[in-house]
Structures are given as C-alpha cells and as structure tokens.
Amino acid sequence: MGRPSRRADALSRERIIAAAITILDTEGERALTFRTLAATLATGPGAIYWHVANKKELLAAATDALVAEATGAGPTRATPHERIRRVALGLFDTIDAHPWIGSQLSQEPWQLASMRIVEALGRPLDDLEVPAERHFHVVTALASYVLGAAAQNAANARHAPRDTDRDTALSAIARQWAELDEAEFPFVRRIAAQLPGHDDREQFLAGIDLVLGGITRE
Amino acid sequence: MGRPSRRADALSRERIIAAAITILDTEGERALTFRTLAATLATGPGAIYWHVANKKELLAAATDALVAEATGAGPTRATPHERIRRVALGLFDTIDAHPWIGSQLSQEPWQLASMRIVEALGRPLDDLEVPAERHFHVVTALASYVLGAAAQNAANARHAPRDTDRDTALSAIARQWAELDEAEFPFVRRIAAQLPGHDDREQFLAGIDLVLGGITRE
DNA sequence: ACCTGAACACCGTTCAAGT
DNA sequence: ACCTGAACACCGTTCAAGT
C-alpha cells in the first residue's frame, strides 16, 4: 500500500541497497564509495543521503537484507539437529558468496542481522530437549562458532589470489606451514598435511556437529 | 646483537607499533592516523613508511605483538582441557582489553597471529587422545569459536555507551528484545530475560566446554 | 519532497629534498 | 640510512541551491 513513486527510475532505499550489494559483490568492499554508488545510480552523492543516514547504516541494511533471506523460511519438517545444520550452512554459503558480510557481522553486534541469526539457530532448541535455562548459553555458543567460522572463510575468500585455483593456493600455504620453526610451531607443522584437499563446507558442518554433540551430551 | 641506534629517541618499528597500540587502546580505531601517529612520535607521516610498509602491516604487527604475548608461555602442568581453557581465556581477555584486535583477526586470516592461536589451542590435543587425523578438524572448530566469541565481545565493548554501566546497558537491550514481534522473534523474546546478569567470561568458557565436550564425546 | 554538485575536512601514501 | 613535510589522489559528509 506504499504510495507509488512518480518515476520508475526514482531513487529509493531499496534501489540504493541493491546497487550497493552489486558493487560490494563484484568490485569488493573498497570499491563501494558514495561517488561510485551515485554514478551507478546516475545521481550525485548527496542524493543518497536523503534515503540513507550514512555508510554504516547502508552496510548494515545490505547485510540485513541478505541475512534475512538466508535465515528466512526453510522447509520445517526435519529433526532439530538437521534444522540447525541447515540454517548454519545457509549462512555459511551466503557469507561465502558475499564475503563482505563476514566483517560486517563481527563489527555491528546487536544489529538486526545478528538477531535473525540467533532466532534461526535458537528456535530448534526447544525440540532438542535443551532446558530453557540453557538456551541463551547454547545459542550464544552456536552463533559464535557460526560467525567465527564464516568470518574466517570469508577472509580467506577475500584474500585468495584471483588467478590461482583453490588447490594450488592451499598447497602453497601447507608448504609454508611445513617449513615453520619446529620449536615454535610443532602443531601447525604437523597438521599442514591435512590442509590441502579438505572441504570447507564439510569442515564447517563438522564443527557444528561438535558443538551440537556437546549440547546433547548429558 | 642488533646494532645500536644512535639516538635513544630514534624511530624504530617497535616504537611505532607501541605508539599505535596506545592510540588504538585509548582513542579507538578511528583515531589511528599516520598523522596523529607521526605527531605522537614527533615526526612527519612519511618517516613511518621507512619502518612499516603501510597501515595494514602496522595493524597486523600490533595484533601479532599482543597475541604472541597472550599465547606465549603459560605454566604447563595441567590437564589438556585446562590448558585449552587457559589459552582461550587469555585470548578472550586480551581481545577484551584491546577490542580492535577482534576485527583485525577476522580480517587477515593466514597471518602470524592466527597461526599462534592455532598452535596454542592445538598443542594440548595430543594429550587429549584425539586421533591425529582429526586434529586439523578440531583445532579449526576451536579457533572459530574462540575468534567468533571474542570478536562479538569486542564489538559489544566497542559499542557500549561510555557513560552507562554494563548492567543498565544489558537491561536496556533485554527490554528491547522483549518488545520484538512475537511472530518473528519468539526465541529471542524468550531468552531476553537471561541477558542481564550473565558473566561474559563464564559464558565464553561454557562454550569452550561445549566444544570440548563434543570432541571427547565418543 | 527530493535531487544536484560544489565544497569542507579529512584520509593513506608518495617523493623530492634534506641530513 | 634515515627523516621531513608538502603534495597527490582520494574519501565521507554537508549544504545552499534548485525542481
């Protein structure tokens, strides 16, 4: 029931956010500028400020839009465990596709997006027979793991050289790890061999299972 | 055995990093500028570039210095479980005291600081009777949780209003949560009551125990 | 009500010139 | 070898002026 804009190409909060997401995804975080954004929208930088308070709010809104999509809906007839895995994996994939969300989420904590994540991860806990007093506890641990893992993965995605493929990149890091000082980094040296060939999503889900294993233990 | 500087107040990488940490801690991330830093060191901005490649490297070096301190040494005669808790809590406290580390760690993944964390968290795994093939797996999960939780906590610390104390701030958020739309956020509404009065460090350690519980489960 | 674009107050970084 | 500081190429944000 919103009043219609006079022109189809009129500026709007939604169009600004959509354009920002496109720039962030295709050109990277550093490329998002009020000038480039204004150029994309065929207007001046000042015009954007009529619809959006500032850059921080713009980034928060862009993050929220994608997180809302990732946590929304979902077919519900599944075990609680399975539902949590589904939400977590959805978030992982969203952050992987839009790596800039990773740094965003760990910077603005009580924002709407974080609340959506807590809600989506927490709702299945009732059916998991976790006592209500522990819900806050447990959902915090789950969310911390999900956000931490996703942020790490996003950072990796951001820093991966464009021209080399994943396997050779991982092998290069593994080789680097294997050459570390034995006295200072014995553990990292030893696990270097396990680095190439691992699957990020599998690894992520294994961590979820670890946490869930701890939850349903007693 | 490094050759001595001629003047005691000569610029050096160490002095620059120390000055940067002081500014970051006392004035916040936004206040760290090559100009303010240069002013603090009584020199011009260009001088800093002789010792440090750029701002990114400076932040990485500052982070590494503090993480090295947090993960270094530690009395060793304790159970593996206890050693992991100790390392994790040390990191938590360090990030709590220097919140800017939080965002730093989730932005530069394969940097030295992350490797120190992996090493410190992973070394006790041998004695925890975790099979070697799972070490990479398990240490990744632990590190993700630690970094995620610490980043969240750091973000909270950064955004807390200066003049209000913790209790009233938490109560305000709890009230806000309790007023959310029941249809959209039933879970968050319900756990709102558990928000005030919780202890961040306890909550953090409980999460560690959850993950460790999952590890030693089978 | 909404848009324009010049202008303000900054940044990180470079570089010729000094010692 | 190391330092100086002006200058370059940008930023986010504001605001008088327009429609």
UniProtKB/TrEMBL annotation, chains A, B:
Gene3D superfamilies with a match to the protein in the record: Homeodomain-like, Tetracycline Repressor, domain 2
Keywords: DNA-binding, Transcription, Transcription regulation
GO terms classed as biological process: negative regulation of DNA-templated transcription
InterPro entries: Homeodomain-like_sf (IPR009057), HTH-type_TetR-like_transc_reg (IPR050109), HTH_TetR (IPR001647), Repressor_TetR_C (IPR004111), Tet_transcr_reg_TetR-rel_C_sf (IPR036271)
Domain HTH tetR-type, chain residue ranges per copy: 10-70
Protein name as catalogued: Transcriptional regulator, TetR family
Xref: Pfam families: TetR_C_1, TetR_N
GO molecular function, one term: DNA-binding transcription factor activity
PROSITE patterns: HTH_TETR_2 (PS50977)
Presence of keyword Transcription regulation: yes
DNA-binding annotation, residue ranges on this chain: 33-52
PANTHER family: HTH-TYPE TRANSCRIPTIONAL REGULATOR RUTR, TRANSCRIPTIONAL REGULATORY PROTEIN
Presence of keyword RNA-binding: no
